[in-house]
Every structure is written in structure tokens, then in C-alpha cells.
Amino acid sequence: MTAVRQWWERRTLHARLAVLISGAVAAAVLSVAVAAWVAVAEIQHHRLRTALSTDAVAVAAAGPPVAAPERRNGDGRRGPRGWGPRRQILDSTGTVREGVTDPLPVTDLARRVATGGGGQTEEEIRVGDDTYLMVTVPVTGGGAVQVAIDQDGDEQTLAAFGLLLVVFSALGIAGAVFLGRVVARAGLAPVQRLTEAVEDVAVTMDFRQPVAVGAGGDDEVARLSASVNTMLAAVDTARRAQRALVADAGHELRTPLTSLRTNIELLVDVERHPEIAHRLSQHDRDKLLADLEAQIGELSKLTTELIELSREETTREAAEPVALADVVEAAISRVRIRAPRLTFRADLTTVTVPGRPGELERMLVNVLDNAAKWSPAGATVHTALTVDGDECLVTVADSGPGIDEADRPYVFDRFYRAATARSAPGSGLGLAIVAQTAAQHGGTVTTSGREPHGTVVTIRLPQLVPAVPTAGLS
Q: Which residue ranges does UniProt annotate as crossing the membrane (predicted)?
């Protein structure tokens, strides 16, 4: 069985389809042939049995004959043995009447009928090398009539008919094989064209050129073609996004790297040429080293954000039920350490969401970091976790200057920085990471204004179980 499965798995789809079609048609041909042979044999046997029974009943009704049993042709004339039925009369003791030179065998069934022990019987008997079908009918007053006919003629007819069926079945199977190959080739032609089109895309790398196989149809090939086009469009979008990310990252990295290189070269020159060391005061040196430290930190943060942003949809963290309130508390604890000048307040509801806790925490840390960056000292950053139908909402409200309404549609784009924020530290990737993580968890993120000033970031995520209110956290 294993060898057959391995052989089958090595066949092409075209070969498998051809084999299945050929096998189905061949099985149908053989089934019809066998059914036809069985039906003809049964009809022939029934016809013969009915004729013998009618003949025997007629002889029995006419009374015991005085002549010996006759061998007659089908037309009633005397003829050679085997051409017509053979008849003989049994007396009430089951003995053959005198004068019969070539008697039929008297079986136990026939003797029982002749002696009044039963009604009409039918059986097959052997006479020499021949097989006869014999019917025994009781005679009124005692005795019985036996009528038998050689079945060789019927068997020869059935054999000839069977040979004819074999010939036509063989032709039918050969036609089935041919038909299977033709149908398989015709049925898989669109798939072959689709394969060639996809292979052409793989060679040319032109993902913008849609596959036109089956266009406008509604069959399986058309749906497959549409799915391939959707996949190609997604690949093209991903490739464009990758190129844009690389280009934007290169542009963003150029400025800190240039500044870093300039400062390092200045320090190297001072170390190599002591005669010019007096030109760089200790205050300037300390300021230069502080700038280097800040630039290295900015570069490190930018690199980390780029890695986060370039992560694939599937990460090494497995999705699991997550208590979102615990994740929010952990994120607040991390940001509170970095922003001790602010007050963080949280009103949380116990909610379970499907997700990856590490990614969710990083997302919330980015939102809280952004709020802390723009909030003045002594301000309060308010975080709330609420429920809206089958979704939960995480809102983070700061007391900063807010985001201009014209800039709000773009704040989640990579490297986007509003005009009022370009002088502030940051890369413009934090909120892009937030949007990507929310989307990967089946959610969305939006921004809105806060009165009298400030920004509210709202994250919507699907929840697993109904929410239960808990006490607020300060």
C-alpha cells in the first residue's frame, strides 16, 4: 500500500486526473458489460425453463403416450440429438416406460414426483459430456413426464456474447484511456496557463502585471487567478513598503551618523595633534562628549525601532489570552521610571484579549513615551481601559500641545514628524510601531484632541471574554 501511495504521489496532477477519469470510465464499461452478460444469461435461462415447463405440462395433460421419447428440433421435426427437447414417461413407481432406447437419468427428485411425493421440479443433469436442463411434471393418476434439453447451444451463445462484450469492453477501456488524457489536458489547460504566467512573474519580478487567466469568470481557475493576483498585489505592496522603509531609514540615519562622525573626527584630531588641544576647552570637550552620548542613544533607539517596525506578521511569540490590565500596568511602571516628573493615573477594567503580551506592552510603552515626551513637568497622563461591545478601548490622554488636525492622518506613517515636532528628539517611528502592532492584533489606533489642550490616543482591540469592572489605579 505504501508503494502504491508513493507511486501515486510522484505522478503529476495531469497524470492523476487522467488515471481517475480513465479508471472511472473503464469501471463503468466493465460494470455495464458484466450486467449485460448476467441479464442475457438470466433471460436465456428463464426462456429455456419456461419452454420446458410448458412442453412438459402439455405432454402430461395429453396422457401417457405409447411411443418412445422423441428428440425433436425446435420446429417439432425429428433431428439429431441435442437439437430439441428429449422426453420420457415415468410410471407411478418412478420406472421408465419400456421401449426407451436412450433414457434420461431418473433422479431422486424425478422419482419423488412420479410417486406422488412432490410437484413440478427443475434441475441440471449430466448425460455423457453434455449438461441438460430437465423439468419433471406429475401426471394425473400417477407417474411423471420428464422433458430435458441440452444447454450446450445456450452456453455457446452466451460464450459468443461474452466474447463480443470483451472485445467492446477492451475498445471502451482504450477509448477511456484516450478520453481521460484528452479531458485531463483540456481541464488543466487553464491551470497550465496560470502556472506559466506565475513563472513568468517570478522571472520578470513584475508584480504589478496581473495574471489574466480566467479573468471575468467565476469558476475555480478564475478564483485561483484572482487569489494569485491578490497575493502579487500584496507582495508588490510589501516590496514597495520595504524599499520606502530602507530609503527613509537611510535618510534618517544619515543625519545622526554625519553628526556623530564630525564629533568623533574632532576628538581624534585633538588627540593626534596635541598642539591644537588648547583650542578645545574642557567645557567644549564635555559638551562634545555629551552630544556623542546623546547621538549614540538616538542612533540606538532608531535602530531598535527599525527592527520592531520590520518584524514580520508572524513572530516567535505565540498568541495567547492576555490580561490587558496587567499589561497596561506593566507599561505604566516602565514609563513612570523614565518620567518621574509626571503623574500617571489609570482607570482599568479587567479584559482578556488574544495577543502576544510582549508586543502589546511595547506598543503601550511607545504610546506612553510619546505622551510623556510632550507633557510638561507636573502634568498628568491619564490611561483608561474600557469596554465597547465586543471590543476594548485603551485611551492615553496627555497634557501636551496636541496634534494639529491637518497632521493627524499622517502621525502613524513611518518617519512622519509634524512641523512643530521636528526640533524635538525622536525618529517618527514610535506611533508607526503602535499602528502596526494594533493591526497585527486585529485592532485599530486613532488620535483626537483633548480640551483644553493635549492629545488622546485610542487603541481598539477585540476581547475574548466579557469584561468585569475593577477599582482604579493611581
A: 158-184
DSSP 8-state secondary structure symbol assigned to residue 103: P
Q: Report pLDDT digits (tens) over 58-103.
A: 877 776 544 444 444 443 333 444 456 888 888 888 888 755 567 8
Give yes or no for a contact between 462 and 391, defined as CB atoms under 8 angstroms apart: yes
Of residues 336, 415, 347, 413, the one with CA closest to residue 371: 336
Strand partners, 89: 145
Cβ–Cβ < 8 Å for 270, 298: no
Q: What are phi and psi of 412, to 5 degrees?
A: -95, 5
CA distance readout (Å), 365 to 65, 180, 361, 448, 456 = 119, 63, 6, 19, 15
Q: How many CB atoms lie within 10 A of CB 167?
A: 10
pTM, rounded to two decimals = 0.46
SS3 74: coil
Residue with cell string 490587558: 324
Distance CA 129, CA 238 (A): 87
The full DSSP string for 375-413 is: SPTT-EEEEEEEEETTEEEEEEE--SS---TTTGGGTTS
Q: Is 445 helix (H, G, I), strand (E, B) or coil?
A: strand
pLDDT per residue as tens digits for the range 101-155? 678 888 888 888 888 888 888 888 888 778 888 888 888 878 888 888 887 777 7
In terms of Cβ atoms closer than 10 Å to its own Cβ (0-12, 13-18, 19+), residue 460 is middle
DSSP line for 281-333: -HHHHHHHHHHHHHHHHHHHHHHHHHHHHT--SS-SSPPEEEEHHHHHHHHHH
Give the C-alpha separation, 13 to 17, whole Å: 6
